[in-house]
Amino acid sequence: MTTYAEEYRRSLGDPEGFWRDASAAITWVKAPGERILDASNPPFYRWFPDAEMNTCYNAVDRHVEAGRGEQAALVYDSPVTGTQRTYTYSELLREVAAFAGVLRGSGVEKGDRVVIYMPMVPEAVVAMLACARIGAVHSVVFGGFAAHELALRIDDAAPKAIVSASCGIEVNRVIEYKPILDRAIDLSEHKPGVCVILQRPQAPAPLVDGRDVDWAEAMAAAEPAECVTVAATDPLYILYTSGTTGGPKGVVRDNGGHAVALHWSMAYIYGARPGDVYWAASDIGWVVGHSYIVYAPLLMGCTTILYEGKPVGTPDAGAFWRVIAEHGVNVLFTAPTAFRAIRREDPSGSLIAKYDLSSFRCLFLAGERLDPETYHWAREHVGTPVVDHWWQTETGWAIAANPMGLEPMVTKPGSATMPAPGYDVRVVDSEGQEVDRGVDGEIVIRLPLPPGCLPTLWQDDDRYVDSYLSRYPGYYITGDGGHRDADGYLFVMGRVDDVINVAGHRLSTGTMEEVIAGHPDVAECAVIGVRDELKGQVPRAFVVLKAGSTIDNDTLRSELVARIRDQIGAVASFHSVDIVAALPKTRSGKILRKTMRGIADGHDEPIPSTIDDPGALEALRPLLSSAAN
Ligand code: COA
Ligand code: AMP
Most buried of 22, 256, 494, 583 (most Cβ within 10 A)? Predict the structure, then answer.
C-alpha cells in the first residue's frame, strides 16, 4: 500500500509515469503511447496526445459488456414531482444510444456543440452522454440562469441543437423554461437548427414549428447510434463559469485526461468502488454535477443518484437522510450551504435518527469554504468522516482533499487537507514569491496542470492565458487566497478577485455591476460579496445616483432586484442596495473594492496610499461594517 506522500511525490517527479499507470483504468480505442504529456507548446499542455477513446463507452457500454447491465446506473429521486425511477446500465445504454440517434438525425456530428438547458431530470444526463457518444460537445447551462445569460452562452458555443424541457420545479413552484429559451434564442445572434423539448406534465409548452421537436416523439422514431471514436484531446464539453470581467468563460474539458483523472479521484479521493451508491446533491448545471453526478460515478461503475429537490422544504430537513436510507447511499457530496440549511431547520439533528444510515460511509463537502462550525455540526450528527475538499470549474476535480481511498488523514477543521496528486500548489505574494508557511497569499498551481483540468477556454486561447497564466509565468492562478500551515495543510480562505460564491453558486460581481449600471438613475456602482449565515455570501450593491436623480432607495432597490433577476437570474440572490454619496477610489479612479470587501468582512483593512478621497471611505465605513448580516 503506497502512502499519500509517495503518490504525491511521484505525481510531481514522474507525472507521465503516474498518469500512464492511472490510464489503465480506462478502456481505449488506441491506448496512450510513449507520449503521455505533450509539453511542446507551453503554456498549453495536452494529456494523452496520441490516444483515442469514447467517454460514453467508458461510462456506460463497457459496464454492460462486463456483465453489469442489470446493476442500477442511475436512480432518479424527485420529491418535487413525487417520482422515482431507476435505470439499469442496460436501460441507460438504450436511452443514450437512442438519443444519440436523435441528435445524429438532427444533423449533429462530431465536434458540433449542443446546449443543454434542463432541470434535474434523467433526460438531461441522457442528453449529456448522448453528446459524448457521438463526439458532440455539450454545454449545459444551469436552469437558474435567465434568458440573457443563456443567450450569451448560445452565442459563444454556437450550438447546432439545444435540448431543453418545458419546465423545472423549484420546491412547489413551476418555473417555465420554454419562454426563457425562446427569449434567449430571440436575443442571440446564433440560431440553433433544432430544439428538442422534453414536455413535462406540470407545464407542457407550445412548440415552434420547424424548429422544435418533442423529445418523446423523436425518441420513438430514433435509430440508435454507436460510439464515435474521438481523440483523447478532443473536447467533451464546455462549461461556462463566472470570471472577474467580461462575459462568462467557456471552460473546455477534454475526453481522455478527464476520464483518467475522474476515475482516479473516485478511487483515491472518494474511496468509491464499482457497485457503490454515490450521490452528489448538486445540479448538473455546475461542475460538481458534471463530474460527480454524471461522469465520475458512471466511469467507476457506481450507481449515481439524481435528486430533484432541496435539502430543506422537499418536504423537510430530513430529505437527505431519507435519500441515503432509501437508496443505500455510501458517499454523499454536497455544498456546506446545504448543511447550514438543514442545521437551521433541525439544529439538534433530530430527523437523522428517523433513518437507517448504516450504508453511509463518508460525507464530502465543496463549492465554498467549509466553516468549522458546520464541520463540527456535521461530524457530530452524521457520524461519518466529513471531508472538505477544494476545487473549481476549471480543474474539474479536487485540487486539495483528504485522500480517503489512499490514506485518510487527520482532519483540521477549516482546511481542505493536502494538495491532490498532480497539483503543485504554491502560495505566493503579489510579486509571485512563495510566502512562508502560515502566511496568507494567493494560491497558484505550477504548470502543467494535471489531466482533467482545462486545456484552454473555448476558442479563446488568449483569454485563457490572460485570465490564468500571464500574471505569474509558469503558474496557473486559482483566484483563491489562503495559506499552508506548518504541517502542509492547505487553508483556502476565499476569492481574491470579484467572484463570489452564493449558496455554492459561483457568480461575478462585475456582471452584476454591468446590469446595475444600465439603470437610468445610476451614475456608478460597486457590488461586493458580504457574509451570509445561510448562503455563505450574498451580493450587496452600493450605488451613486446621477446628478438630479430623485429616486428613493426602496424604488431603486426593487427596480435593480428586478433587473438582476431578469438578466442574470434569481440564483444571484440579489436583495441589498444602498444609495451612497460617493464610492472610495484611487487617484486613477479605480474603485477600492478590495478595501470595501475587507471592511465588510470585519478585517482591519489598511487604507491604500493611493486613495483619492479618504472621506468617501470613512462615510461608507458604518454601512460596510454592518454589511455582514
Ligand atoms: N431553476 C430555476 N430557478 C432556480 C434554480 C433552478 N435550477 N435554482 C435556484 N433557483 C432560484 C430559486 O428558486 C430562488 O428563487 P427565488 O429568489 O424566487 O426564491 C433563487 O434561485 C435562489 O435559489 P437558492 O440559491 O437555491 O436559494 P434558496 O433560498 O431557494 O435555497 C439552499 C437555499 C441553501 C437550500 C439552496 O441554495 C441549496 O440547496 N443549496 C445547495 C447548494 C448547491 O447545490 N450548490 C451547487 C454547487 S455544489
Ligand atoms: P466553482 O467553479 O463554481 O466550482 O467555484 C469554485 C470556487 O469555489 C473556488 O475558486 C473557491 O473560491 C470556492 N470553493 C470551492 N470549494 C471550496 C472549498 N472546499 N473551500 C474553499 N473554497 C472553495
Answer: 256
Q: How confident is the model at residue 1 (pLDDT cuts 50, 70, 90)?
A: low
Ligand 2 atom nearest residue 505's Cα: 3
Contact 328, 277 (CB under 8 A): yes
Atom of ligand 2 nearest to the CA of 479: 10
Cell numbers standing for residue 47: 494529456
**Ligand 1 nearest-atom number relative to CA 170:** 13
Q: Is the pTM of this model over 0.85?
A: yes
- At 37, the amino acid letter reads L
Residue with cell 431543453: 164
At residue 430, what are phi and psi to the nearest 5 degrees? -70, -10
Instruction: Calculate the CA 143 to chain-centre distance.
Output: 13
Q: Which amino acid is at 457?
A: L
Confidence band of 498 (pLDDT split at 50, 70, 90): confident
Distances (CA, A) of 235 to 101, 179, 456, 464, 467: 20, 30, 10, 15, 20
Q: Is 47 exposed, middle or buried (0-12, 13-18, 19+ CB in 10 A)?
A: buried
Check pLDDT > 60 for residue 127: yes
Angle at 207 between CA 223 and CA 164, to 5 degrees: 65
* Amino acid letter for position 557: R
**Candidate from 369, 411, 493, 498 with most ligand 2 atoms within 8 A of CB, to mutate:** 369
Question: Which among 139, 153, 44, 47 is positioned nearest to 462, based on CA atoms?
Answer: 44
At 606 the pLDDT is 82
Contact predicate 301/68, CB 8 Å? yes
- Residues 66-118: pLDDT tens digits? 999 999 999 999 999 999 999 999 999 999 999 999 999 999 999 999 999 99
- pLDDT over 60 at 160, yes or no: yes
Q: Is 290 in the pocket of ligand 2 (CB under 6 A)?
A: no
Give Cα separations from 255 to 107, 199, 285, 410, 468 (angstroms).
22, 31, 19, 34, 22
The secondary element (H helix, E strand) that includes residue 197 is: strand 194-198
Residues in the chain: 629
pLDDT tens by residue, 299-310: 999 999 999 999
Is-contact 53 292, C-beta < 8 A? no
- pLDDT tens digit string along 312-336? 999 999 999 999 999 999 999 999 9
561 CA → ligand 2 middle, Å: 25
